[in-house]
Write a structure and sequence with these properties.
74% helix, 5 helices, single chain, 123 residues
């Protein structure tokens, strides 16, 4: 049961990352989702810039340890998804690039939303 919960935490973590990076695109259809998306982006960027560990990471490790498993080996999710979330050789400089990329992607998306809303008010 612990391994299943750990795998679910990894999936949740991956969905959080995807939502932080690309979730702004959903705002073109559902603008009110910004109230959820903006805090996610801020959390993701701050986590990268400051080198913090997301609380989901220790939770996953704890669950795997409770199951008596190595925290990052075995199974489809551990083999394919974990390296995306925790790339090998991640350095503070790389974290700054990731955080900057996250901010830039979302600035572009929110700028597009702003322009779209402005045009709709004018026309």
């Amino acid at each position: 049961m612990y391994l299943l919960l750990a795998d679910l935490v990894v999936v949740l973590h991956l969905l959080f990352v995807i939502f932080a990076v690309l979730g702004g695109l959903l705002l073109f259809k559902w603008p009110r989702l910004a109230w959820l998306h903006l805090p996610v982006v801020v959390w993701g960027a701050v986590t990268e810039f400051l080198g913090l560990i997301c609380p989901l990471t220790p939770l996953e490790i704890w669950l795997r340890q409770q199951a008596g498993a190595d925290p990052y080996h075995g199974g489809f999710i551990s083999h394919y998804l974990v390296p995306i979330i925790y790339p090998p050789g991640l350095t503070p400089g790389m974290q700054w690039l990731l955080g900057g990329g996250l901010v830039m992607i979302n600035l572009l998306v929110y700028s597009g939303l702003f322009v779209r809303k402005r045009k709709s008010r004018q026309g």
